[in-house]
TrEMBL record:
This is Uncharacterized protein. It comes from the Eukaryota. It comes from Vararia minispora EC-137.
Length: 118
């Protein structure tokens, strides 16, 4: 074992040998992303009856239903509602677990009106 030599004092070191204390910088929370700033990736308009898929895509509820229904129809196979292989996000093709054609497996987003009095 070697002999340890004390480190020279530096402005970053506390006299007690503790790690330097730096001032805590608080960053403001990010601005919320309002629903009207999004566009539906299917019809390219503001999402009506906005729906969030498990993979994180926001689109019109009707566009999502139409896209999933069209994908199932293209298979040419009679598909049971519970068969997950054909219920996929129209944007990234991720499976939508729990899809039942009536809102199961997705989250309906409700617009919230904010008013400011001042």
């Amino acid at each position: 074992m070697g002999i340890s030599t004390p480190l020279p004092e530096s402005p970053d070191r506390q006299p007690s040998g503790e790690a330097p204390r730096r001032p805590t910088v608080l960053t403001p929370p990010p601005h919320p992303e309002y629903l009207h700033t999004f566009s539906c990736p299917v019809c390219f308009s503001a999402p009506s009856n906005a729906t969030l898929t498990p993979c994180g895509h926001i689109m019109c509820g009707e566009c999502l239903f139409s896209a999933v229904s069209a994908a199932v129809a293209r298979t040419g196979v009679s598909v049971l509602i519970s068969d997950l292989r054909f219920h996929r996000c129209p944007v990234c093709r991720a499976v939508i677990p729990g899809w039942d054609g009536r809102g199961g497996g997705v989250i309906g987003l409700k617009p919230k009106v904010l008013t400011e009095l001042g």
